[in-house]
């Protein structure tokens, strides 16, 4: 699914790199714990998180992830947005809960792919 | 693990005790270096993940230490060394979910007890040595080609 469709489904606000919204994303990982996210060693996921710090962007950068959706209305600082922009990571935010975001995207065909141990 | 000399490239990153805010920047720099050297993206990502985990661990748990990235013709070696406090139970730290991280660290998204097992998972060879009161050395090798 394209990032533009994801943004539309979630009624999410795109915070940077609107020009990258035609990227296809087949899968997702959702967690507030970056330690758990770092176990997913594949780059074709969107990161769904309520953790809104520089480490969220750094985690996406290390994993080559292309986009982050901040849930529960979390709003990143300008520093976080700049860092994402610099590293080619699309940022979005939505007022929806993580549970709702996961449910809505799953219903539209996005899945969790491989589990932690394959 | 075997000693290696004559790295074709070496980069060192110091990590201070409690240096959480900047932890990870060294790994991002390592990642850029490896990309520039033409290392394949899957290997680069595995090294970057292991390095980030090690860097976070140094900031959270150690009294200070350093990460050294060495590139050889046939492999990449990543070494994390600290000056203490050392790990008492080496089996327990390899158990997924075990963590001694503080609530403050967890609030920042780390301390899920996945760091050490994830470093082992990402690397082709993994060696952990530690002595309480002295320090911990983690050596990780990643094969090239």
Molecular structure report:
The complex is a heterodimer of chains A (118) and B (145). With 118 residues, chain A is of the alpha/beta class. Chain A has a single domain, classed as 3-Layer(aba) Sandwich (Udp-n-acetylmuramoylalanyl-d-glutamate--2,6- Diaminopimelate Ligase, Chain: A, domain 1), CATH 3.40.1390.20. Chain A contains five helices and five strands; from the N terminus they run αββαβαβαβα. Chain A has a five-stranded mixed β-sheet, with helices on both faces. Helix content of chain B is 34%, strand content 26%. Chain B has helices spanning 25-36, 41-61, 90-93, 103-107, 115-122, and strands spanning 9-15, 65-71, 75-82, 125-131, 135-143. In chain B, strands 1-2-3-5-4 form a five-stranded antiparallel β-sheet, with helices on one face. In chain B, a hairpin with a 3-residue loop joins strand 2 (65-71) and strand 3. The two termini of chain B are 20 Å apart. The interface between A and B is medium-sized, with 21 and 26 residues.
Task: Chart the SSEs and their pairings.
The complex is a heterodimer of chains A (118) and B (145).
Chain A: H1 3-10, E1 13-16, E2 27-30, H2 34-37, E3 45-49, H3 54-63, E4 67-70, H4 78-86, E5 90-93, H5 98-107
Parallel strand pairs in A: 2-3, 3-4, 4-5
Antiparallel strand pairs in A: 1-5
Helix pairs in contact in A: 3-4
Chain B: E1 9-15, H1 25-36, H2 41-61, E2 65-71, E3 75-82, H3 90-93, H4 103-107, H5 115-122, E4 125-131, E5 135-143
Antiparallel strand pairs in B: 1-2, 2-3, 3-5, 4-5
Helix pairs in contact in B: 1-2, 2-5
